[in-house]
Amino acid sequence: MTSSSAPGKIILFGEHAVVYGQPALAVPVMQVHADVEIADSPRAGIWISAPNIHLHAELNSLPSGHPIASVIHNLFFVLNIDPFPNLQISISSSIPVASGLGSGAAVSVALIRALSSFLSYPLSDEQVNQFAYEIEKLHHGTPSGIDNTVITYAKPVYFVKGLPSPGRRWAGGEVQILKASKPLTIVIGDTGVHAPTKESVSDVRKLWEADKAKWEKVFDEVGEIAKNAREKIESDEWEKLGELMNQNHALLQNMTVSSPELDKLVTAARQAGALGAKMSGGGRGGNMIALVEPEMAEAVSSALKEAGAKNTIITTISP
Ligand code: PMV
């Protein structure tokens, strides 16, 4: 039997603008993860069991664009595996779906790693990332690649989307590992509202298409915030970092990707003493994040629950 695990993630700064080439910052969230186990099966075929998404099926019964089926087909094609072995694949995940914590990318990364090592073709992180990016396109349409990248490397990253170049499907993006100078404490609050990233990304695209100059200026502002935030993280200027979070949230509100539920949690976190707060990920629902001094984490978490958060996670980003 072979198993693999991949963490969830949050975007600290720069979501949406990252799709248009601006930098963004994302960190893994180790408290939630996707886990994949693979074993030989006495039954013919490749049997997939993923109770979280009520999936119990043989590979060939899944539609061809199904992300899990696509991981298996793509990997077997590239590794030249034919005929397919008989397998039992078990997938479980504690990452809530459609909530900006990277559940789809985490399943892809864990499945790619488990399958390739079960078949004795271990892949480099770069190859895993590339495969996972292809699958992200099925989930999101036009992803920047930040989710698969932060989840593959399981480290805080400063990410700039790669431009497609001749002869390569994806240039890989520019990935730099972020180094906080001391631990950063983040409280994550879940609105409980499921919102597909594909829709908010497509709505931002419509805004941009209607007035490119206006929205590119907004994306540039978000990019400046992300660059500035990186400096503040590396020099542990938490108060200024909190202020940058608030500014980034206001620009995401302008992009129409926040929601009343997200705004309510963001306000509650700030009132409870957070240094700053913003929505995180695709928006319209899903999760928000608050930067806190460690001793304020519990109070902010309670305030978020009182304001309607369905769940909270306190996570620390270590240097
Ligand atoms: O998967 P989510 O909901 O965390 O959102 C990803 C971040 C976006 O910038 C909105 C989209 C992308 O591909 O970068």
Describe this structure in words.
The protein is of the alpha+beta class. The protein has two domains: 2-177, Ribosomal Protein S5, domain 2 (2-Layer Sandwich), CATH 3.30.230.10; 184-317, GHMP kinase, C-terminal domain (Alpha-Beta Plaits). It has nine helices and eleven strands. Mean pLDDT is 93; it is low at 164-171.
Features:
319 residues; alpha+beta; Alpha-Beta Plaits; 9 helices; binds (3R)-3-hydroxy-3-methyl-5-(phosphonooxy)pentanoic acid
Mind sketching the topology for me?
Elements: E1 2-13, E2 24-40, E3 46-50, E4 55-58, H1 67-78, E5 87-93, H2 103-118, H3 125-140, H4 146-153, E6 157-160, E7 174-177, E8 184-190, H5 197-210, H6 212-234, H7 238-254, H8 260-271, E9 276-279, E10 287-292, H9 297-306, E11 311-317
Parallel strand pairs: 3-5
Antiparallel strand pairs: 1-2, 2-5, 2-6, 3-4, 6-7, 8-10, 8-11, 9-10
The protein binds (3R)-3-hydroxy-3-methyl-5-(phosphonooxy)pentanoic acid.
(3R)-3-hydroxy-3-methyl-5-(phosphonooxy)pentanoic acid (PMV) binds at residues 11, 15-16, 18-19, 100, 102, 140, 143-144, 146-147, 197, 201, 281-282.
